[in-house]
Amino acid sequence: MGLDYKKLGLKIGFEIHQELDTHKLFCNCPATLREEEPPIKIRRRLRPAQSELGEVDRAALAEAIKGKGFNYHVYPDTICLVETDEEPPHPINEEALNIALEIALLLNAKPVDEAHVMRKVVIDGSNTCGFQRTILIATDGYIEIDGKKVRIPTVCLEEDAARKVREDVSFVDYRLDRLGIPLVEIATGPEFSDPHTPAKAALYIGQILRATGKVKRGIGTIRQDINISVSGGARQEIKGVQELALISKVIENEVQRQVALLEIRDELKRRGATTVEKKFIDVTNVFSHTKSRVIQKAIEAGGVVLAVKLSKFAGLVGKEVQPSRRFGAELADHAKTYGGVGGIFHTDELPAHGISIEELERLREVMGASPIDAVIFVADIKDKAEAALSAVVDRANQALIGVPEETRRALPDGTTEFMRPLPGAGRMYPETDIAPIPITEDRIKTIKSSLPELPESKKKRFIDEYRLSESLAERIVLSENVDLFEALIRKYRVEPALVASTLEETIVNLRREGVQTVNITPSALEEVFERISKGALAKEAIPDVLRLVASGISVSSAIKQLGLERISKAELIALISETVRSNLNLVKERGEAAIKPLMGIIMSKVRGKVNGKLVYELLERELRRASKVQTP
Predict the structure, then answer these.
(1) How far apart are the C-alpha atoms of 397 and 418, rounded to whole Å?
(2) Is residue 54 pLDDT above 60, yes or no?
(3) Closest C-alpha to 334, from 294, 279, 389
(4) Which of the chain's termini has less CB crowding within 10 Å, N or C?
(5) End-of-domain residue from the set 562, 594, 613
(6) Which domain holds residue 283?
(7) Residues 445-465 pLDDT 10s
(8) b/e per residue, 275-293, with b = 16+ CB within 10 A?
(9) What are 22's strand-pairing partners?
(10) Are residues 553 and 585 in the same domain?
């Protein structure tokens, strides 16, 4: 869609949540994720409570309406009473606090004088105590992207939530191994007005985080939440964007969604639509002989088919709001969330799904629906069907106003789905179990004295000092192998480009082949480059050697198995002379151009045993000699 983002008044900000590579924030438990079945499970329920001002947070209330309980998975050897909320939090992890302060300084932010732990209400079960602990670390930071200053209003340190491992209509199962892992939360201002610059900013902040060498790496260790709005729309918080490549796509799709919802609002106003009443009608008899398996199974299980009329909504329920997602999907999200049903049916998509045109006409007749009305119906047990339709009506009435404020979940295809309403502004309050933490000048001075090199500075140094290409320098700067790269080239006399390409290209290619590259240890790489620096191994042999090393054998065993024992220069000269003598006709026909096929013949015999550059030089010399001999 050719949208004019400036005209739409697009505003975007985002938050980055990055796990720190240290133990948990308020206890000494390791930050280790587990996959085996836990020996202990604890079952609980959480309920919303009024604040000191007598208010109940709307997001917390929305979670409570779902009525779900929670099963917590516990590993006693790596999870303690703090995570199960049976013991107060321990003193803060000082290492995590220092890492957060280091990141804040790299983002040009001003650390606070005194850090206060706050409680943020969360009752979706992901925190056993019903709140998340978070600490404001610094304010008023900034970065520069494309010559423009991007504000970083806050940098916070907080604890990660428990991992959801399964969910059904009654319970959610959470694993407590992730609960309490320290996170740094970096929030930008609403600085962006196009879908592409936020991805650049997120990439740059990610580079700064990795430059510290103190953050976790891998899927799930860094997450982006994006805040988006357009003029006339409303702020949406898109949770859990894990891939940078998805940021622009998520933004584009959300803008499309808000524009479409505003178009639905305007069309409803033009039609004179009014508030939909929660008048549900049992239409089970309409489908007594239906061929719809979904409806058949629901009725056989003792369920009913309940329907509600959305006056003047015809054609709008089926309107596309995101790629492959229609407004009906928005209604269905609410039905699933608050009613626990599998989905909804609506007349904009019928006849289909085994529902005949006769059933559709009978349904319209029973509901008193005109051609401009839509009918939504649900097949399930009565209580669930009523709760689902109640949520559908609430969402339909919001369509009369425009775009409701929501927290939405990012999906792998770049679209989003409803999670819950946006939380209110007053859901944070002081943590009473932890005293304020002074941030002294001496602490800041110590951290400032050892700040890491920023990515752009390191990249320039790698290009100037090590003669790396710009693309290879950028890749190695962003890599978790950057420290290993510098250690290897300082320790051994090897070409920096060879080391960088081995770490960032050769090993990556092996991984794509399915090779278990996790078995290629830094010590194995040191041995490989030590042999290359001593002339005991040719660089051409690196992929084959590492492939065998990844299978679990030593470097020396891999070299022996491949038959890569180094040959002497004298042996190489003899081989080249013999090869040229055996191919004199080729030399006569092609002259100097014969060097390419002859290199192929020789390298097939010595690949990995000797440097290809040396072979080329000696072959070139032998060809010149042979040419002189043949000249009359």
Answers:
(1) 16
(2) no
(3) 389
(4) C
(5) 562
(6) 269-405
(7) 999 999 999 988 999 999 999
(8) ebeeebbebbebbeebebe
(9) none
(10) no
